């Protein structure tokens, strides 16, 4: 999967797949593997996991910043060695189709529905997240959707479907952006947005005009899995196999459980034991 400069030039003419661009590289070891994910990379968890892993494997990790849908597309195309995602149905299909393997539960967070305290959409006090979404639509309150096929977007669409609503109109606005950027847009314009709890913990101090209006519905639990490409003859995928095993190990799970406590006073993720309670 890793190519010389000459090979990359040749691939450009032959149309063969090449590796995606790194948002960041963690470590300076001899062997490289490429991982695609969104928020765990944005929030720093991925770097902490990579640093601990690389010490024992003479490795370095290339992080490709992508939401779950894009991450899985990159994995299927052979542009990355592995992905860390939260799109359970698509993950299961990838394994069933044979182009992904070693799907492993690694942890979870949850989604919060946030918005302005005035709550034009009458979200606060709703009996379920589906009811909260219906209230937003009924009141045509400004709602931001990532509209990017990310795990967050997939979850949002499933909630609209459960509410029997096809959202459309000026009140329903796409951001086509990642979690933090979408939150900041909602804050600036008095809109609603569904964010993961980890990003909220890390970013809330920058969002004075947003507040948590709804949480706690079990539907909003957000489980993360790691999975890799199927070809273990490839060095990057072989390293990915070891990395997935590390993240699922006692050491990796401790990193996940404790991440965020020192900086924010609370954990940003739950471990796989907690997450397993919400597996479908």
Automatic annotation (TrEMBL):
Pfam families named in the record: PBP_like_2
Keyword rRNA-binding attached: no
Keyword Signal tagged: yes
InterPro entries, alphabetized: ABC-Tungstate_binding (IPR052738), PBP_domain (IPR024370)
Domain PBP: start-end pairs: 34-250
UniProt entry keywords in alphabetical sequence: Signal
Signal peptide region: 1-19
Residue intervals passing through the bilayer: none
Protein name: Substrate-binding domain-containing protein
Species of origin: Shewanella submarina
């Amino acid at each position: 999967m890793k190519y010389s400069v000459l090979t990359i030039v040749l691939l450009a003419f032959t149309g063969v797949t090449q590796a995606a661009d790194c948002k960041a590289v963690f470590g300076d070891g001899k062997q490289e593997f490429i991982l695609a994910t969104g928020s765990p990379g944005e929030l720093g968890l991925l770097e902490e996991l990579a640093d601990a892993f690389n010490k024992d494997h003479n490795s370095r990790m290339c992080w490709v910043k992508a939401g779950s849908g894009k991450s899985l597309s990159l994995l299927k195309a052979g542009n990355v060695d592995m992905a860390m995602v939260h799109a359970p149905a698509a993950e299961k299909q990838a394994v069933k189709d044979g182009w992904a393997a070693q799907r492993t539960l690694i942890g979870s967070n949850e989604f919060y529905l946030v918005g302005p305290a005035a709550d034009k959409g009458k979200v606060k006090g709703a009996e379920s997240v589906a009811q909260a979404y219906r209230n937003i639509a009924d009141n045509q309150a400004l709602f931001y959707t990532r509209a990017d096929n990310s795990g967050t977007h997939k979850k949002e669409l499933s909630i609209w479907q459960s509410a029997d609503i096809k959202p459309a109109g000026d009140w329903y606005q796409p951001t086509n952006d990642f979690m933090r950027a979408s939150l900041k847009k909602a804050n600036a314009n008095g809109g609603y947005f569904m964010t993961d709890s980890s990003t909220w913990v890390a970013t809330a101090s920058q969002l004075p005009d947003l507040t948590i209006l709804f949480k706690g519905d079990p539907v909003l639990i957000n489980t993360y899995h790691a999975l890799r490409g199927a070809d273990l003859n490839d060095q990057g995928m072989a390293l990915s196999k070891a990395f997935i095993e590390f993240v699922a190990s006692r050491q990796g799970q401790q990193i996940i459980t404790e991440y965020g406590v020192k900086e924010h006073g609370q954990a940003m993720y739950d471990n796989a034991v907690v997450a397993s309670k919400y597996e479908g």
